[in-house]
Amino acid sequence: VVSSTAFAYRGKKTITTIDPSKQSIIDTYNRISGFSDVDVRQIDLMYKDECAKRGNGGNGGNGGNGGNGGNGSCTDKDRSCPGWKSYCGKNQHVDTNCKKTCGTCPGTGGGGSGCQDKHTGCASYKRSGYCTRQHVQWMKENCCKTCGF
């Protein structure tokens, strides 16, 4: 669940828009399962000038088939990520912006088949049946080791 007061101290807003006229989008939008792809695209569009000034950090290495590729310039996109570590694999915003903290940088996999889990919640998702039911494609991409894909 991500809202304008997610990870907040005493209800203080932690997610605010550059353009105050857009704040109501963040404040009132239902955030049951984190940011959708559409949300991310809209946020990218709203912040494109700001992001261009900061840079996007790069995508790291690829690890190959069980290889041990480097993690390139993998970094967290938010300085609060270390404090959000317990949300890794549970919150889409954290998973997307805290790859270094969550250990999900591309190319960080060790040997084996090259299939590595990208989320710490994979075991829980498997227990919920997601490897074989409603979220199979997502599980193949994000929890392939746990599900045995």
UniProtKB/TrEMBL annotation:
Gene Ontology molecular-function annotations: metalloendopeptidase activity
Start and end residues of each Peptidase M12A domain: 1-52
InterPro entries: Peptidase_M12A (IPR001506), ShKT_dom (IPR003582)
Taxonomic superkingdom: Eukaryota
GO biological process: proteolysis
Domain ShKT positions: 74-105, 115-149
This protein's name: ShKT domain-containing protein
